[in-house]
Amino acid sequence: MEVDNFEEIQSDETIEIKKPLKEMEEEQAEVMDRELDYFKDRKVLELAKINFPNTTNQHYVHKTFISNDCTCILAAVNAKGMYVSELPSDLYNVEEISEEREITMLKPAIFVKQMNIYDMCWNPLLNSAQPETCYWLATSQDEPLKLFDAYNGGYKCSYRVHDYADEMEAAISCQFSPDGSIIYAGTKKSIAVFNTDIPGRDYDSIPIKQPISCLATNYYESMLAAGSWSKKITLIDTRDYLTIDTLQGHRQGVTFVKFSSNGQNLFSGSRKDSNLLMWDLRNTSLPLYRFQRRVDNNQKVHFDVSYNSNFLVSGDTRGIVHVWNLKDLNEDAFPKEDQYQLHSDSCTGISMHSSFLATSSGQFKFGTDLEDENSEKEIVENSLVLWWIGATKRLKNKFYFQKILSLYFLF
User: Fold this and answer.
1) Which of these, 58, 71, 88, 166, is most buried using a 10 Å CB contact count?
2) Model's pTM, two decimal places?
3) What are the pLDDT digits (tens) for 69-84?
4) What total number of domains does the chain contain?
5) Is 349 helix (H, G, I), strand (E, B) or coil?
């Protein structure tokens, strides 16, 4: 779609992000009840999956995001492109899943060829019933930020950042504002601020003397968190673009940041650093908790937080998924942890929504790892898997029903 037609898909009315208090409380209460069943009895059920072979070309999955209306999954495959897969129709609006359900083999609905993807994110107000809201943003090497249609994968428009020499500069990271009206793009020395309705090169700039590797926005506060390769996290007031605070606690470059859904905490992770930090925004002098996960390479190992901030989930480079219950503390006043060996290779992509968990596996394999005499021992798994973490039900077998039926006729 051409840039000139972009405004046609926009609503004439301004989107109001703040819901009525009563409506929000009812929604949170409903989700809170559902979260009581998360990881109950340490159960995680595999629902659907898709495999990406051809490891000689390094086609591993390194980013995974479930859409905000929980209808599709966006995944980035290294040196190949972006895939959009729809959730199986029998999983829509379900409250519990049978343990006997067969695993569905996912088929990509959309494929967009794009090399060396740096970052991507869904429109936060995406609703499949409203096609004008169905799009995602992505940035890649030597390319401007691009907006893609989630219905057909078509290119909508682009946003271009230029450096001091007026040459186009690729953004390292990108993020929407909570209402989707603003786009933030992190570069090597600044954060570009675009109006989503105005594609092109018209933007404001927030000067920061460090490469911005990841971004996160806070729904409840006018706050932007910017992680950098220089091990720092900068908190910025989005109303005047002034720095609020600077957080320092990582030993390597920060690769991923995310606010808790209640807006009170910030989580951060870094490369080759097993510490996943939780910050209390009321006192940022030291991290509130240091969670341990194995991160042995330079990949971005993502994490996610449940809707009501009850659970923190993260993969690691051993294929283990860590689950911390933030509301259930042990005798040392530390969140209780469960671990699930869901993959046989590095699990770097993870996304949680409703009672679903999407994970992805794979990592860069050096040629010597696959060609030497011990290559048969090398574990290679490039996959995207959808899991169920909510309430489950077990169907009784036919023998049980036959026995009950025979007793009925006997008496």
Assistant:
1) 71
2) 0.86
3) 999 999 999 888 999 9
4) 1
5) strand
